[in-house]
Design goal:
The structure holds two protein chains of two kinds.
Chain A lengths: L1 E5 H11 L4 E4 L7 H6 L6 E4 L3 H14 L3 E6 H17 L5 E7 L13 H7 L3 E2 L4 H18 L3 E6 H4 L1 E6 L15 H4 L3 H24 L4 E3 L5 E6 L1 H10 L4 E5 L1 E3 L3 H8 L4 E5 L5 H8 L18 H9 L26 H10 L3 E4 L24 H13 L7 E7 H17 L5 E6 L28 H8 L3 E5 L4 H12 L5 E6 L9 H6 L7 E3 L18 E4 L3 E4 L9 H5 L5 E3 L3
Parallel strand pairs in A: 2-3, 2-4, 4-5, 5-7, 6-7, 10-11, 10-13, 14-15, 15-16, 16-18, 17-18
Antiparallel strand pairs in A: 1-8, 6-12, 9-11, 19-22, 20-21
Chain B lengths: L3 E9 L4 H14 L3 E6 L9 E9 L12 E6 L2 H6 L4 E10 L6 H4 L9 H8 L1 E5 L1 H8 L5 H13 L6 H8 L5 H12 L2
Parallel strand pairs in B: 1-4, 4-5, 5-6
Antiparallel strand pairs in B: 1-3, 2-3
Helix pairs in contact in B: 1-7, 5-6, 5-8, 6-8
The chains are: A alpha/beta, B alpha/beta.
Chain lengths: 590, 190
């Protein structure tokens, strides 16, 4: 049967067909749908882990226990998970194990565009790079075979365009491989220095065998045409190159890119006068090939930054540019992403935006948009958890000056579970006068609504215990903790004032569900959520534009008639009505 | 190389362009075409400008469409039609919904919603202006604008071998099938 599958759906399908039994991940664009799709196969145990390091450790354990297992994450998630990966490569597997890294060239939804192919080289893991959905499925199955055959975990690298592009895939049957026998094996699986000195040498031998395998395996293919030009490429870049050059050049398409098949590469290069290396982001292949003493052209023509496209390659190599009609600049208005109408983060950021002499360290999630106009209520965003730890750093640095700046650290609920808890421990342990605001919107929002340890449900839909953020915060030793409704601005203001006067750490938990979340009955009841709309009375609107300062997409403004609320977008959060000094905004029906 | 048709969909997060592209892709596959479809997730969906891309033919390699490469641009909103008009080939066709969604600089009253977009677009490319909002209102559900626009696209594409009805049935919830089919027909005969 043939189906149109995204790369992520195909990765999940491949893992399913390969007989995977355990899967763990933390959501992150562009990787999220891999586990979401795996969870639809009931033969596979699938879970959201609190972070990527935990996810990899879970699948390491499952692999050693004898089950085929898979972890998936976005590129920056692999930074978090690097620690177990670097040692697991030494130990080797029992059941096959694949770690998926979904890189984001062009930073569609990320804070950097690191090229994780280097992680394979660095951690000494075989690296597999598919170029479309069919290959993603086929290569995934192959990766489990390689993992077991060579006794190593495999790094499987995808990119946004592959993850989120759909192409036709021929589906196969699941092959049940079961759980391999497990028996305690201290020299193999206990990473002591003495054991790992042996393992490192063994791994180098495995890599030699893997390189031999790469010379002849069908993951690397040569497409010979009658040409003077050879193109070496991997991943989605192959599709772009093929689009541009068609049958006019020959290709060495690499799907197995660490260890590189050096002989295959040098044989290919010997056939052509000109060799182009076409790869997205870093000169990973190019540097290796040049180190072999082969003269190739790569990054001096192909850009090092951003996402690649056929158009960029065509311009870079063939100097061809298409003709088109340009948009009229004054008729194109920017449309940046913004906090949704009714977003519970708005009240917090609005109140923070009004405060003088503050530093607000933000974090990764929808609430990064608190930095956007008109709120502009953020000083830093770095990585998961830094919203809390960077606040601590600010406090310790400012303590060396006369500055009395109030420091707020802002973090989401899922991010708090991911990396915020240890950061908060640092604040309490090392005593900094920081107010941490945990934006608990009862879901992992930005990645499209995944369950997390605070929601009471698992990835597979089972009910589970809610990990209570308030209790964690109190157990860490924070003495000043408030749980508030962020849509009640007076409440927000009062607690910000109270905690700004303290000389000790404090935590505000702003607890209210995401405006887009499909609410369960118990949530509707506990938060007393009833559908409502707000409306502007034009006779009372003084056109002061105060309501525009909250940056709600449901509110627009007209010089003649004043403010206007789009009833299709308004969900009745009431924040606008609280900022209007003239009582012009009221609930419909009141 | 064989002929490839490239269709770029542009709109605002929440307008249903992903579903529209899915129905199109599904119909194309059933008819035996090779299809690639590309979409964007994550940060861009939060009220931002959103595109999906569908390419089909005998054999498709790249899933993405560059400037000057689209045969058809299907814009669900007027500013988005202008923003992406450079993706059309010089002889490409624009299907544009006569519908306004203000963006942040507009609703915060920093700039006004631009005037004269259609006259401007018509001077640049072949433009098919669609009043999907009015038709959707008549059908009693503003959310079916996307399927009305799909109907217009089906007419412009003129591929007689596609079973649109079956694809709509496959991709939408059963309780919305009749409504969506009516919406499709409203667009097709517009």
């Amino acid at each position: 049967m043939k189906e149109l599958l995204s790369g992520n759906e195909a990765a999940a399908r491949g893992a399913f067909e390969a007989g995977v039994l355990v899967a763990s991940a933390y959501p992150g664009t562009p990787s999220t749908e891999i586990l979401e799709n795996l969870a639809s196969y009931k033969d596979v145990y699938s879970e959201w882990a609190p972070n990527e390091k935990v996810a990899v450790e879970v699948v390491v354990g499952a692999s050693i226990a004898g089950a085929r297992s898979i972890a998936a994450m976005k590129h920056v998630g692999l930074n978090v998970a690097a620690d177990p990966m670097f040692t697991f490569s030494y130990l080797g597997v029992n059941g096959g194990c694949v770690i998926v890294t979904a890189d984001d060239p062009g930073m569609h939804s990320s804070q950097n565009e690191q090229d994780n192919r280097y992680y394979a080289r660095h951690s000494k893991l075989p690296l597999i790079e598919p170029s479309d959905s069919q290959e993603t499925k086929d290569f995934m199955i192959k990766s489990f075979e390689i993992s077991e055959k060579f006794d190593v975990p495999v790094l499987f690298r995808m990119t946004t365009r592959l993850c989120h592009s759909k192409s036709i895939v021929e589906l196969g049957e699941r092959k049940e491989v079961g759980v391999k026998p497990y028996a305690r094996n201290i020299p193999k699986f206990v990473a002591t220095p003495a054991a790992c000195r042996v393992h490192h040498a063994e791994l180098e031998e495995k890599l030699k065998k893997l390189e031999e395998y790469a010379q002849t395996c069908d993951l690397n293919t040569t497409i010979l045409n009658n040409s003077d030009i050879g193109v070496i490429t991997s991943g989605i870049s192959f599709q772009y190159a093929r689009e541009v050059f068609g049958d006019k050049v020959s290709y060495l398409k690499l799907g197995f890119t660490f260890p590189l098949p050096k002989k295959l590469i040098s044989d290919f290069c010997s056939k052509f006068k000109t060799i182009y290396v076409i790869e997205e982001l870093e000169p990973y292949l190019e540097t290796e090939i040049k180190a072999m003493g082969i003269n190739v052209t790569g990054k001096e023509k192909i850009p090092l930054t951003g996402e690649l496209s056929p158009q960029i390659i065509r311009k870079a190599i063939l100097n061809e540019e298409p003709q088109y009609n340009k948009p009229t600049p004054e008729r194109v208005v920017a449309r940046p992403p913004i906090l949704c109408a009714g977003c519970p983060h708005r009240g917090i950021f609005f109140e923070l935006s009004k405060r003088k002499d503050t530093v607000i360290t933000g974090d990764i999630g929808c609430y990064t948009l608190g930095s956007a106009d008109p709120l502009n209520a953020m000083d830093t965003v770095i990585c998961m958890g830094a919203g809390i730890s960077a606040a601590h750093g600010f406090a310790k640095a400012f303590a060396k000056t006369d500055r009395k700046t109030k420091i707020f650290g802002v973090v989401g609920d899922s991010t708090f579970f991911h990396s915020g808890i240890t950061s908060l421990i640092d604040i309490v342990y090392n005593k900094s006068n920081v107010t941490v605001i945990i934006l608990d919107n009862r879901i992992t929002g930005m990645t499209g609504h995944q369950e997390n340890p605070g929601t009471g449900y698992t990835l597979m839909g089972d009910k589970t215990d809610i990990i209570d953020i308030e209790q964690i915060v109190k157990a860490i030793g924070v003495k000043h903790v408030s749980v508030i409704n962020p849509n009640q601005l007076k409440q927000v203001r009062e607690v910000l004032n109270e905690y700004s006067a303290l000389e000790e750490p404090s935590v505000i938990i702003a607890k209210y569900p995401c405006a887009l979340k499909k609410l369960r009955l118990e949530e509707k009841q506990s938060f007393n959520i009833k559908p409502s709309k707000y409306v502007v009375d034009p006779s009372k609107c003084k056109k002061c534009r105060m309501c525009l300062k909250i940056g709600c997409p449901a509110i627009s403004f007209n010089e003649e008639t004043g403010s206007f609320i789009d009833e299709n977008q308004c969900i009745g959060c009431s924040v606008c009505s609280q900022v209007c000094s003239f009582g012009a905004i009221t609930k419909v029906g009141e | 190389m064989t002929e490839i048709t490239s269709i770029l969909f542009a709109g605002v997060g929440g307008q249903g362009i992903v579903l529209t592209s899915k129905i199109l892709s599904s119909a194309l596959i059933q008819a035996g075409y090779d299809v690639k479809m590309s979409e964007v997730h994550g940060m861009a969906q939060r009220g931002g400008s959103v595109t999906t891309q569908v390419r089909f033919g005998e054999k498709v390699f790249s899933p993405i469409i560059g400037k000057g490469e689209a045969d058809i641009l299907v814009a669900f909103e007027k500013i988005e039609a202008m923003r992406y008009v450079d993706y059309l080939k010089l002889k490409g066709k624009l299907i544009a919904n006569d519908f306004k969604i203000p963006s942040a600089p507009i609703f915060s009253a920093k700039v006004k919603y631009p005037r004269g977009i259609f006259a401007d677009l018509e001077g640049k490319v072949y433009t098919k202006r669609v009043h999907a909002a009015e038709a959707a209102k008549e059908l009693g559900n503003m959310k079916v604008q996307n399927i009305i626009i799909l109907g217009v696209l089906a007419k412009v594409l003129g591929l007689n071998n596609l079973d649109w009805k079956a694809s709509i049935k496959k991709e939408v919830k059963p309780e919305f099938f009749d409504l969506n089919l009516k919406a499709f027909e409203a667009g097709y005969y517009m």
